[in-house]
Amino acid sequence: MYSQIRVYPGSLSYFRHTPVKLAVTFFLILAAVLHSPTSDAEQKTATFQNIINRLSRSGSLLMLQAVCDVGKSELRNGVAFCSACPTFTSASGDKTGFVLADVVLGSFTQAREPEALLYMKGCEPDAMVDSGVVLLQQTANGWSRLQYQKGLGFTECLKFRTLNDVSNLLCNHSSSVDGIQVGKIFWIDMTENKFSRMPLLRWYDNTSSNPRELVSVFPHRFLRSDFNQDGRSDVRISFRIREHFIPEKYSGALHAINSGYKIDPPQSVSLTYLFNGVALILQKDSQENSARINQIVNKHLPTTDP
């Protein structure tokens, strides 16, 4: 029903600084060379692309008119934003701005209702994540705001059509601080204009911090297929896992890699979730891998991390 391509590619980068981006790119290329992550079965299944939607300039401004206070929606150098934080945010009136990062289009609250979920950055300095998501619905008079959830965001999302003929979302989101990348994979249900966010997994990658103890639990592929042949699309999430202690003669992992030190190739594990028309259910044969991922991540992140 909607095109399935990205909006504002520059905003989707996990890292904000070019040197870090180059280092991580080098690391991931090295991992790809050392280890092929796909099994024969996975190669026969089409890769499921994310569904971030690209909007025209006029389209993004029309949506922002339902988000920004009157006269505050702007488009500059390809970036759509509110020039002042809207009144419903924690920093109402602040001039730092509220920037449109990503958009997913679909019918989320009721069947056949044209709606949009907007990921907006900024205006929530007191939240764990300085951002929020805005749910809009299109009417005969334009877009209107249904709800706002602060402290949330998404980088990639997959849509799953439920028994109620609405779309729930499986989303991935990450943030990076001091070279440590932390991500979360979660399920969003907005049926009947409620908002339910259920965390499924967390992941962790400290490669860019030049660590002595390199730990990387990274989701590199989301595949969608009808694995149990019930007529509904399911999902398989593939992770690369790497744990490696760097010799003392190197300052850390990046120094070692750039010096030609050979790091053990990552292991590839997959988790299969079956969709029953209401929710995603982790398969029994994936529970051991899920427990291993959680064990590694929980060693480096607080278990109370939201």
Mean pLDDT: 83
The Cα radius of gyration reads 20 Å
Strand tally, please?
14
Report how far apart the termini are. 33 Å
How would you briefly describe this protein structure?
This protein has 306 residues and is an alpha+beta fold. 16% of the residues lie in helices and 38% in strands.
Topology (SSEs and partners):
Layout: H1 18-34, H2 40-43, H3 57-64, E1 73-76, E2 79-82, E3 98-106, E4 115-121, E5 131-139, E6 142-150, E7 156-161, E8 167-177, E9 180-189, E10 196-205, E11 213-225, E12 234-245, H4 253-258, E13 267-275, E14 280-282, H5 287-300
Antiparallel strand pairs: 1-2, 2-3, 3-4, 4-5, 5-6, 7-8, 8-9, 9-10, 10-11, 11-12, 12-13, 13-14
Written overview of the protein:
The chain is α+β, with helices and mostly antiparallel strands. Helix content is 16%, strand content 38%. The protein has an eight-stranded antiparallel beta sheet with strand order 7-8-9-10-11-12-13-14, with helices on one face. The two termini are 33 Å apart. The model is unreliable at 1-50 (pLDDT under 50).
From the structure above, extract its key features.
single chain; 306 residues; alpha+beta; eight-stranded antiparallel beta sheet; six-stranded antiparallel beta sheet; 5 helices; 14 strands; 16% helix; globular
